[in-house]
Write a structure and sequence with these properties.
alpha/beta, Rossmann fold, 2 domains, 8-stranded mixed sheet, 7-stranded mixed sheet, 10 helices, 19 strands, 31% helix, globular
């Protein structure tokens, strides 16, 4: 008989619409024959929400800290429901990476004897990533990093799949995109003081060495710069291409706010991947300002499957799903189906798009050292460029 197990499975619900799995230690099965096992790692913070299985946050709004992990988990469970309806035989084990008194190392040790065939993770820091990257390599288990766009401490591990594209790939793609789509105009690279900003600036500069260089001016601004500080650098007689060189959301918000107050200038502003979901992107009123940002995810609300997921989510949780719901759903559904189809040969069949929901992944091996014998990791190199004008999506390239 076909079956799908969520292990351990203890479900709680609040007066509103919380759905969480309590991740107490689970006992390994003693059977020598069992369905393929998939481990899901997510930051659920259950110990902060429950005390002796009693929900302790009352009727207040769910703290923002909980939302990414909760949404990712809800997407995972919606995908497992879909797989169950298809008669899929698989086991899904959910682990809370924020369980009190538990380190990444102790969690890896707990998982070690259970014989997982696939790990799907929503990491929140490099310590978790380092531990489970090592774990996946030592145990020859493909690890899908679904949401964390960082390659820190990942090396010589062809089992590590990075879905959320790295900052280096974004920066190089932004350079090429500007170069290809805006051949003329005034180019300004706006940044702030900071080590990460220095890193982005160096990446952008290095990208120019691989092709013909852009003629751009780098300007370092204080965090709360004003229109008086930025607008004199623009040209009212030609198109201005303003490139944001910082991941800082407050800095990006201020840049958009300042440019929104310049209706006499023709402006294209290119944002960082942190602009995906940034509130100020959708609240501009300046018709001469076009905002462009890169993202590896293209969850179009007009897509049939996305519409179905949205409707189901609204029915179950009385809310609108965030992108984390779609990320959880797609990684769970897509990679589970690939695992079932190819088993131990999954890594050689990542180009199979049969089970993708809305994304168009392009996985490529990455070697941080060109002389390396094996890839350091496998990365999704597919990026979409979202164009927004006066709060509405104008185009997706």
């Amino acid at each position: 008989m076909n079956k799908l197990k969520l292990i351990p499975i203890r479900i709680f619900s609040s007066i509103v619409f919380i759905l969480l799995i309590a991740t107490h230690s689970a006992k390994a099965q003693t059977d020598s024959i069992h369905p393929l096992r998939i481990a899901v790692l997510a930051p659920l913070y259950l110990d902060s929400a429950f005390e002796n299985n009693n929900y302790k946050l009352g009727n207040t709004n769910i703290p923002k800290l909980f939302l990414p992990g909760l949404d990712f988990y809800n997407g995972i469970t919606m995908a497992t429901d879909s797989l169950k309806n298809e008669g899929v035989e698989i086991e899904v084990w959910i682990y809370d990476t924020k369980k009190k008194g538990q380190s990444p190392e102790s969690l890896a040790a707990e998982m070690s004897p259970l014989g997982f065939s696939l790990i799907i993770a929503s990491f929140s820091n490099i310590a978790e990533q380092k531990t489970f990257s090592n774990f996946s390599f030592s145990n020859n288990i493909p690890l899908v990093s679904a949401t964390y766009p960082n390659d820190a401490y990942v090396n010589a591990n062809p089992y590590f799949l990075m879905v959320n594209t790295s900052l280096k790939t974004h920066t190089e793609a932004i350079y090429k995109y500007v170069q290809r789509n805006y051949p003329v105009g005034k180019f300004i690279f706006v940044t702030r003081k900071g080590s990460m900003e220095d890193k982005i600036q160096n990446m952008f500069s290095e990208a120019g060495k691989k092709t013909y260089p852009l003629n751009y001016k780098t300007v370092q601004m204080p965090d709360n710069f004003t229109t008086e500080q930025l607008l004199p650098l623009l040209d009212s007689n030609r198109q201005n291409v303003v490139i944001c060189g910082s991941l800082d959301e407050k800095f990006g918000t201020n840049l958009i706010k300042v440019l929104d107050q310049a209706p006499s200038y023709q402006i294209i502003t290119i944002g960082m991947p942190t602009w995906d979901g940034l509130k100020s992107v959708s609240t501009t009123s300046n018709q001469t300002l076009e905002i462009v940002y890169s993202t590896p995810y293209n969850y179009s609300r007009s897509d049939k499957v996305i519409t179905e997921i949205t409707t189901l989510y609204k029915t179950k949780f009385n809310g609108r799903p965030s992108d984390m719901v779609f990320k959880g759903f797609e990684t769970m559904y897509c990679f589970s189906k690939l695992l079932l189809k190819y088993h131990n040969n999954l890594l050689n069949n990542l180009s199979d798009s049969s089970f993708r929901i809305s994304g168009n992944f392009q996985f490529q091996p990455v070697k941080l050292n060109s002389d390396a014998q094996i890839p350091d990791y496998i990365e999704n190199k597919k990026l979409f460029f979202i164009h927004v004008q006066q709060g509405a999506i104008k185009a997706i390239n």
